[in-house]
Design a protein that fits this description.
- There is one protein chain.
- With 280 residues, the chain is of the alpha+beta class.
- Helix content is 32%, strand content 27%.
- It has a six-stranded antiparallel β-sheet, with helices on both faces.
- The longest helix has 15 residues, at 60-74.
- The radius of gyration is 22 Å and the shape is elongated.
C-alpha cells in the first residue's frame, strides 16, 4: 500500500476525532524533510512528526493510536501565551544562523532574516513547553508575526544580538573535547550559547569578538564547526586561511550531520571587523 493510500485510510479513522493529517515538505534544523503535519480542530498549533519507513508499515489502527497520543500531548493554542506579545518577543528573541543556500526554503516559510556574507540570520523566541514540563520549545519569527507586533527587522536584529550578549560562553577547546590537543602556543577557543544550541550566531556579536580579541589577540580565524558553535584560532599569517578552509570543508563532508552544517567557509576578525575569507 502506498503512503498516499495509507494517509487516506488513517484520515477516515481520525474523522470523528476532528483530526486530519497530511505530508508536507518542512524546513527543520537546516535541511528539508518530509513531515507529517497533524491538524486538530480548535488548535492553531499543528504538531509535526518525521516518520521513517517503518512507521508506514504499521496497521492503520496503530498509526491512529500514535497520532492521538501526540495530539493529547500537544493540543494547545498559541494565542493563549504571552510570548506572542511584543514585549515578550523583544525580551527573549535570539538569533541563529543558516547557510544562505537555504534562502528559497526560508522565503517560502516567510521567515524574517538578515543576510551576512554567505549566511542568513534568523530569529527565534524560546518558551517553556506548556505540555512537557522542563522542556523548551521555540518559534521562528515570521514576517506575519513581525508585522503583527509592529517591530522592524532592524530593531529585531539589534535586540536579538543584545540578548545574545547575555547568553554566550567562551571556553578553551581542550575543555570542550575529551581529547589531548597539542599545545602549540596558540590558544584555541570554542564559542557558543549557554545551552549549546544554535550558538554559531555568536560570531556576529561585537561584544564576543572584543572579548576574544582581549584574550587571544586582534587577528583570528573563525571556523563554523556547526550551527551550534564556532572555533576561534589565532592567525599566524594570512596563508593559514587556506589551510583552515580546507579543514572546514573536510570536516563538514565527513563529520558534520547535514542538519548541523553551517557553511564551507572561513571568517576572520581583523582591525575590529568581521570578514569572510575569499580564496585568491
Amino acid at each position: 500500500m502506498t503512503i498516499e493510500k495509507k494517509l487516506c485510510g488513517v484520515n477516515e479513522l481520525l474523522q470523528d476525532d476532528n483530526i486530519s493529517i497530511e505530508m508536507q515538505d518542512m524546513f527543520k534544523n537546516n535541511v528539508s524533510k518530509k513531515g507529517l503535519v497533524i491538524h486538530m480542530k480548535n488548535c492553531n498549533v499543528s504538531p509535526i512528526m518525521y516518520p521513517d519507513e517503518t512507521f508506514w508499515m504499521k496497521p492503520e489502527e496503530e498509526i491512529v493510536v500514535e497520532i492521538k497520543g501526540v495530539c493529547e500531548k500537544h493540543s494547545y493554542h498559541l494565542d493563549n501565551f504571552d510570548f506572542m506579545q511584543k514585549k515578550n518577543i523583544l525580551e527573549k528573541v535570539m538569533p541563529r544562523v543558516y547557510s544562505a543556500d537555504n534562502l528559497p526554503e526560508i522565503e517560502k516559510k516567510r521567515y524574517v532574516y538578515t543576510r551576512k556574507f554567505d549566511m542568513l540570520i534568523l530569529y527565534y523566541v524560546p518558551f517553556d513547553d506548556p505540555v512537557d514540563a522542563g522542556s523548551v520549545a521555540t518559534i521562528t519569527i515570521s514576517n506575519d508575526i513581525l508585522q503583527g507586533v509592529g517591530v522592524t527587522v532592524e530593531e529585531l536584529h539589534r535586540v536579538a544580538l543584545t540578548n545574545l550578549d547575555r547568553n554566550y560562553k567562551i571556553m578553551d577547546m581542550k575543555d570542550m573535547f575529551a581529547i589531548d590537543i597539542p599545545d602549540d602556543g596558540f590558544p584555541k577557543k570554542i564559542v557558543t550559547v549557554q545551552n549549546f544550541c544554535q550558538g554559531a550566531a555568536t560570531m556576529f556579536s561585537r561584544q564576543v569578538m572584543l572579548e576574544l580579541e582581549a584574550e587571544i589577540g586582534d587577528y583570528f580565524a573563525i571556523l563554523p564547526s556547526s550551527v551550534h558553535e564556532i572555533i576561534v584560532v589565532p592567525i599566524k599569517n594570512y596563508c593559514d586561511m587556506q589551510d583552515f578552509l580546507k579543514m572546514v570543508i573536510e570536516v563538514n563532508a565527513g563529520c558534520v550531520a547535514p542538519e548541523d552544517k553551517l557553511t564551507d567557509s572561513v571568517y576572520f576578525w581583523r582591525y575590529g571587523k568581521l570578514n569572510m575569507y575569499v580564496p585568491d
